[in-house]
Amino acid sequence: MGPEAAARYAGRIQSVPRPVAAMAACYPASTTSTRHAHRRGQFVLQIAAVTSMTTDHGGFVIPPGHGFWIPPGIVHQSRSWGDAEIQTLYIDQDSVPDYPRKCRLIRASPLLQALMDEVTCMPLLYDEEARDGRIVDLLLGEIGRMPEVSLHVPIPADPRLARVCEAVLADTSSCMTLDDWAAHGGMSRRTFTRLFRRETGQSFSAWRQRVRLLEALARLGTGEPVTSVALDIGYDSPSAFTAMFRRELGDAPKRYLRWSDPSVVVR
């Protein structure tokens, strides 16, 4: 289903009398949702293209083959980079009381992806005591054991810092200096750097580099060449960008994204 139908359907299935309600949807490139929250927890599995997710606590990027957990009541907004395909679960939190109370990005195992395929094909009122119920139980356990991936940036609570962060997110290639950003936040350089580190646990330059990495990952996931992405987000050369990417994510861009290519056959 498309984005408008998906939004209506998601609202209707929040109260289904089962631990899990599932759906699949397609979102054209640049589709941006409204800021919203759900009564149930939400698990999103990215099938194709890339989705970026913004919450009050930070921004995340979800590449193919990755899943994103959003606890109940967390306000979020999504944007699709490329023509995105996703599978979504809405999970009754009472069914998984040990699930985390904060957003969490994971790499999805082949088993998890196969189970998601099964669950999205089930009727909403599946038989909890038969095969469908056992598959749901296995899926919930598999989601809970997947390794977490750090593809996010925190958003400070201080409104002045948040204003600066929003401006950086809007233009990741900006050439503004640290002094310029401090002035944008209405603070001295010293106050800005001290407060930023206290609220985020990292320097502003490290945070900004992370933002650039996440945008690069989103754009690479749509098929853009490494060279054009590297130059557009402010790197002097593709090699400098690749070195940063490898340092942060442990692999070169093409190899990292090939790991999560949904067309790869697992034998």
TrEMBL record:
UniProt xrefs under PROSITE patterns: HTH_ARAC_FAMILY_1, HTH_ARAC_FAMILY_2
SUPFAM superfamilies documented for this protein: Homeodomain-like, RmlC-like cupins
GO molecular function, a single term: sequence-specific DNA binding
Domain HTH araC/xylS-type: 162-259
Keywords: Activator, DNA-binding, Repressor, Transcription, Transcription regulation
Superkingdom: Bacteria
DNA-binding listed as a keyword: yes
Signal peptide from the UniProt entry: none
Short name of one Pfam family: AraC_binding
Name of protein: AraC family transcriptional regulator
Source organism per UniProt: Enterovirga rhinocerotis
